[in-house]
Structures are given as C-alpha cells and as structure tokens.
Write a structure and sequence with these properties.
Blueprint lengths: L2 H4 L8 H11 L18 H14 L1 H4 L16 H5 L6 H7 L13 H19 L13 H9 L17 H4 L2 H9 L21 E5 L5 E9 L3 E5 L5 E5 L5 E5 L3 H6 L5 H11 L4
Antiparallel strand pairs: 1-2, 1-5, 2-3, 3-4
Helix pairs in contact: 3-7, 8-12, 10-12
Length: 279
C-alpha cells in the first residue's frame, strides 16, 4: 500500500450529501425515485478485492469499515450506494470526482469499480443484519507488538506508553486504535487528551522566498497553487506556489505514513494488541 494512494482525499467522498441533493433536484422527473426494488447480491470474492481497493483509496476519510471517518461520511447509509447495483452509480462519482467537496476524480478500472461496489453492499448487508457482531481485531501478540514499538517501528521516538499513549485503550476501541495508528488524525481532532499529556504536534512549514528569506510557521493550508501559514506572531501569511518559492513541510505524522509501505499484517496486529494493553 502506498501513501500516495491512501491520501486520496475520499475515494467516494460526500456520497451521502450528494445523493440527497440529487434526489431533491430530480424530484418529479422520475430520477430521484427510490433505488431499484431488487436486493443487491454480493459476490464474496469480488467484495474481498473491493475491500483492498477501498482501504487503499477511501479508508483515510471514510474509515476502515466505511461507516464514516474524520473527513468522509457514512457510506453504508449513502443513497447512491443504495441505488447502485454493480458500480453503475458509484462509478460515476469516482470517475468525475466532486471538486467542490475536495474529491478529485479517480482512475479505477471497471472491474475495480464493481468490486468496490460489492464491498460496500457487503457492508450494508452486515450492518443491516441483527446478528452482525463487531469483528475482534485483537488477535496479535502484545509482546511482539511492544518489541516492534520500541525497535523496528521506531514508535518510541515520538510516543510513550506513560505519556501521550497512557490509558489510550480506555479512550478508543480496538478498531479506532488501529485506524488512528495507520491514519493519525490532524492535530486538534478527536477527543481531548488527559491533563499533562501532549497531543499531536502541529504540522510546521518553511517557505523560502526567491530572495532567500525564510518564513516558518504552522501550516494552515497547502495545495498545488498556494501555501499558507501562521507565523510565530500569529499572523496569517500566504504565497502563490511557483518554482521560485520553495516549500518544506515538516509533518509529525510522516513517520506513520512511511510505515504504511513497511508494515506486514502481523506487525499491525501485534501493535494493536500491544496498544490494547495500555489501559
């Protein structure tokens, strides 16, 4: 899995809101009617493949189980997903994107679109089932996870089980621990930390201007066209990006992103098992 794939800002971003708006706009034209009367069938093999596509492109915003995340809505309750059968509705959103909502277009094959659709329908069916139970993901070796935390993973360079991670397992369910470990939230997001503990450090940025002058501060916004920051005095400053303006971003979450290319499934399981002991 590549971070460049995972940082795709919402693989099916804002489906719920867009579907609701589409339904209202097309009322009375036969387009906004409820979805097909037939119940979607799920191919488990295609759904499993679709899960991989979802994790690589969509989980960052919509959560690992598609029930919503920090940036994206609950796709299980999406009207577009409800109207879709084999990717014909979802595919339109994925291919076109929703630039106004921050979602760029994605280039997925027709097979990937259908598999993504199958995964989402599978999640809808699981959610609807009265017998559905949360999957137990605490299946790793806590001791091995602690060794990875203190060794190969390099986690102890930024985190401490008696500091920012003290009692973390009492604040988050295992699924949330795993999601936050793989995709750490931006500073200031999520529930408050306990008194005396440090939270995520803000992302810093250094802008070097054509004349060589440098301006440093907390990153406010960056895209292909501009960069903005708050300097040490709290002043908001921004520049248009060009080859003559050098931008160096120091993101405290970068180490997490780098690990996405290195983790094995077992590493993740072991780390989650270790974090679950921090109560």
């Amino acid at each position: 899995m590549r971070w460049s794939q995972m940082i795709s800002w919402a693989a099916v971003f804002a489906l719920t809101a867009t579907a609701a708006a589409t339904t209202r706009a097309n009322a009375g034209q036969g387009i906004g009617a409820p979805g097909p009367a037939d119940k979607p069938t799920v191919d488990p093999v295609k759904a499993a493949a679709g899960k991989n596509t979802f994790v690589q492109n969509c989980a960052f915003c919509h959560g690992l189980d598609a029930s919503g995340g920090e940036r994206g809505g609950d796709l299980i309750r999406s009207l577009i997903v409800a109207r879709d059968r084999k990717g014909e509705e979802i595919g339109k959103i994925v291919a076109a994107g929703i630039p106004a909502k921050g979602m760029p277009p994605f280039t997925l094959t027709p097979a990937q679109i259908e598999e993504l659709s199958q995964f989402l329908h599978q999640r809808v069916a699981e959610k609807a089932s009265r017998n559905a139970k949360p999957i137990n993901i605490v299946v790793g070796d806590a001791a091995a996870g602690e060794a990875y935390f203190n060794g190969e993973g390099g986690c102890r360079e930024c985190h401490s089980p008696t500091g920012d991670l003290a009692h973390v397992a009492t604040r988050f369910a295992p699924q949330d621990l795993q999601l936050r470990m793989l995709f750490p939230p931006r500073p200031g997001a999520g529930p408050p930390i306990e008194s005396g503990q440090r939270g995520p450090a803000p992302t810093q940025v250094t802008v070097t201007l054509p004349g060589g002058d440098q301006v440093r501060g907390v990153l406010v916004r960056i895209d292909d066209f501009a960069v903005a920051l708050k300097d040490a005095n709290g002043s908001y400053r921004s520049w248009t990006r060009s080859p003559d303006v050098k931008v160096d971003v120091q993101d405290p979450r970068a180490a997490h992103y780098a690990l996405l290319d290195k983790y094995t499934d077992r590493d993740i399981q072991n780390l989650v098992a270790y974090l679950e002991t921090l109560k």
